[in-house]
Design goal:
By secondary structure, the protein is an alpha/beta fold. The strands form four sheets. Strands 1, 2, 3, 4, 5, 6, 7 and 8 form an eight-stranded antiparallel sheet that branches. It has four domains: about 80 residues, Elongation Factor Tu (Ef-tu), domain 3; about 230 residues, P-loop containing nucleotide triphosphate hydrolases (Rossmann fold, 3-Layer(aba) Sandwich), CATH 3.40.50.300; about 120 residues, no CATH class; about 180 residues, P-loop containing nucleotide triphosphate hydrolases (Rossmann fold, 3-Layer(aba) Sandwich), CATH 3.40.50. It is elongated, with a radius of gyration of 31 Å. The protein contains 25 helices and 23 strands. α4 crosses α5, α8 runs antiparallel to α9 and α21 packs across α22.
């Protein structure tokens, strides 16, 4: 993928802000295209289009669905026009394109319309302990009991817990079902499509276990997952996914009716030609020479003609202004201007072959048939399902991009909103949730990955401190909010944007005064060997492990040559050999690396495992039996910031990246790295060094 404006400053404003994704293969089906991409789509799939070499245009005449971030496949339903163009071009000419300006514009427009509504939640729920019950067969800890009670009796809360502490499948699910039992409704917000699906899977597990006969929740009627779902999620839970085919059909029918109505309207305008010609004759040949009696008769004729003209023209609101304020005193001076405006527009709808030979009555009948089909589809439409749902789940972009979600029966009428993976959510994309009103429960782990931001951090600091070289008249002054966790929301709600900026510049942790916080410290993901190290290097809050058998950690020593890039060929080759010998014996697995360059190297050498090779950022919220970690950084690294994403004591993101990577593993953690180098860093309490130096770690 070529991100043309990645890291660009306002000084580079001539650079187009387009992210271009190459296509590896297109499987051309009769009614859709199955596209395999080279890399992950930037931005939101809803705002993606097609660029075709030789056509010189950016096409958005398509609906995208079934986007799988793991296999990098997406289903596209193109318009008839776009399909004809695509079929005349080879795969190599076609690109998936995301115009990243859409995100800025969407955010700006949303804040212009709703910005004044940002505020502390207006309502506080109230639940007694007898109003809710914990998942069947599970005994809650004191912390989990406190967390549920806090959520169900607070306007704003934050439940912080390491992986496996029960945030989703225990605490959140219990709180959600408490609302459902009281006849309430909830909304779930998560920063990415993958995060939305992970939290829904966790909640659905509990729902299926606690409500097997669907007395409380009938999934296909009561739950809706908004946005483009992955193929795996559609396979498992198709009934709760937004029916995008239905929405596409409704939009198609509505568009068809708009076009037919335009045809009828333009036919009416065509008739008006003779009316304007008649006015020409009256005013140019007869009116000025007529005697008073004949002029009075002509005035009646003019009034009749004008009444017919204005009644037809004003049918369309965008043209009604042409006839407003026109009377017998100014008509003579205005009618030619009006005629020119009406006749010299694009009126090509009159040439549409399908409608050209149909009468107006036949066109009206076609409109009615379309309306009847829309009426039958309406119960399956997104707007209808949102209003009838008990649980709706989406990303913030879906929330901002769909005004109907703020209408009656939408998100403002739910009883509680849950924000999952809140530490991974940036502040500016999460603020819209605080425009809704219901109480909000935030859940996450701010010691895992921070928000993803494509902007250069140095540029962000320069923009928000108004360095002369970066002066933008305020245009990018708030860009830091794209790079700052949503957990800083309280500083914004009860302070100013300057308070939030100070937190960002000082790299200060979020402050919680009006937010009720509960820590979960008993992890069922980690055995105590890893939990102990994580607490000493990362959490410092007493995290304990209760995951059964200790995590098996094996470290393969791969020093590698000196590096000035973000790849390590020796590690990649050793991993490829390891998989050839062990692929069928390690259960579910993934290959993780902090760096995109190393991911490309691994994909090249381990083609069989291509869909399992991720950057650490791509693994957020997921887990596998075995995690294979390619560290890349070693004793010979000679970059400006050599251990930027790998050292937990680095001033950058290293601690959160490595913490995220190791905590994806349920049974085995296989590390490929410069073992002696990292082991030597154990004395500095560097997380990776501590894990490798642990007596239970096997070094090969």
């Amino acid at each position: 993928m070529t991100a043309v404006q990645k890291g660009a400053s306002p000084k580079d404003s001539k650079i187009a802000s387009m992210a271009v994704n190459e296509i590896r293969h297109i499987n051309r089906k009769p009614n859709f295209l199955k596209i395999t991409l080279s890399t992950r789509i930037s931005g939101d799939i809803e705002q993606t289009g097609i660029f075709i070499e030789g056509e010189g245009s950016f096409f958005k005449e398509a609906t995208f669905d079934d986007y799988d971030e793991t296999s990098l496949t997406v289903t596209m339903y193109p318009s008839e026009n776009l399909r004809r163009i695509i079929d005349n071009h080879p795969d190599r000419d076609i690109k998936i394109v995301s115009d990243m300006k859409w995100l800025i514009k969407l955010t700006m427009d949303f804040f212009v319309e709703h910005g004044e509504d940002i505020g502390y939640p207006k309502n506080t729920p109230h639940f007694e302990e007898g109003d809710y019950s914990f998942p069947v067969g599970e005994e809650p800890t004191k912390e989990q009991k406190k967390a549920v009670k806090t959520i169900l009796n607070s306007s704003l809360s934050y439940i912080w817990g390491a992986p496996g502490t029960g945030k989703t499948q225990f605490v959140m699910a219990t709180a959600i079902l408490a609302h459902i039992r009281k006849g309430g409704r909830v909304a779930i917000i998560a920063p990415t499509n993958n995060a939305v699906e992970q939290v829904l899977r966790g909640v659905l597990k509990v729902v299926e276990k606690d409500d097997p006969v669907h007395e409380l929740i009938v999934p296909e009627e009561d739950i809706i997952r908004l946005g483009a779902a992955t193929s795996e999620f559609i396979h498992d839970y198709k009934e709760i996914c937004e029916d995008r085919a239905v929405m596409s059909r409704i939009r198609s029918l509505q568009t068809s009716n708009e076009i037919i109505a335009n045809v009828i309207y333009e036919r009416g305008i065509e008739i008006l030609k003779s009316h304007f010609d008649e006015l020409d004759v009256i005013y140019s040949e007869e009116y000025d020479r007529a005697d008073p009696q004949h002029r009075a008769m002509m005035d009646e004729t003019i009034a009749r003609i004008w009444s017919e003209i204005s009644s037809i023209v004003s049918i369309k609101p965008e043209f009604s202004g042409l006839v407003e304020g026109i009377d017998e005193y100014n008509l003579r001076n205005q009618y030619k201007v009006i005629a020119k405006r009406l006749m010299e527009r694009d009126r090509s709808v009159l040439d549409i072959i399908q409608y050209r030979d149909l009468s107006n009555d036949e066109l009206l009948e076609l409109i009615n048939r379309n309306l009847e089909e829309i009426r039958k589809l309406e119960p399956r439409s997104t707007a209808h399902r949102v209003k009838s749902s008990k649980i709706m789940a989406m990303t913030p972009y879906i929330l901002m991009g769909n005004p109907h979600l703020f209408e009656t029966g939408g998100i403002r009428d739910v009883n509680q909103i849950f924000i999952d993976e809140v530490g991974y959510s940036n502040l500016i994309q999460t603020m819209p949730v605080f425009m809704c009103g219901p109480p909000i429960a935030m859940l996450g782990d701010h010691m895992q990955l921070p928000p993803v931001c494509e902007l250069n951090p140095d540029d962000i600091v320069a923009w928000c401190t108004e360095d002369d070289d970066y002066r933008t008249d305020g245009f990018m002054r708030y860009s830091f909010m794209w790079n700052q966790s949503a957990l800083n929301i309280e500083q914004y709600l009860f302070g100013t944007d300057k308070d939030v900026l100070k937190n960002y510049l000082d790299n200060s942790p979020p402050r919680f005064k009006n937010t009720r916080r509960v820590n979960l410290t008993l992890s069922h993901r980690f055995a105590d060997n890893l939990a102990r190290i994580l607490d000493e290097c990362v959490y410092h809050n007493g995290v304990r492990g209760h995951g059964g058998d200790p995590l098996k950690v094996v470290c393969y020593d791969a020093i590698g040559a000196g590096q000035d890039s973000r790849e390590n060929k020796e590690e990649a080759e050793m991993i490829s050999d390891y998989l050839d010998n062990n692929r069928d014996e390690i259960g579910s697995y993934t290959l993780l690396t902090p760096y995109r360059d190393q991911r490309k190297k691994l994909k090249y050498l381990s083609k069989k495992d291509s869909d399992k090779i991720l950057t650490v950022h791509g693994s957020q919220g997921r887990e596998w039996d075995t995690v294979i970690l390619s560290v890349v950084d070693n004793r010979n690294s000679c970059r400006q910031i050599p251990l930027r994403f790998t050292s937990s004591i680095s001033p950058n993101e290293g601690m959160r990246v490595i913490n995220t990577a190791v905590s994806r593993a349920k049974r085995r953690l296989i590390i490929f790295c410069d073992a002696e180098f990292w082991k030597g860093r154990a004395k500095m309490n560097d997380l990776l060094g501590r894990i490798i130096a642990d007596p239970d770690t096997e070094i090969i």
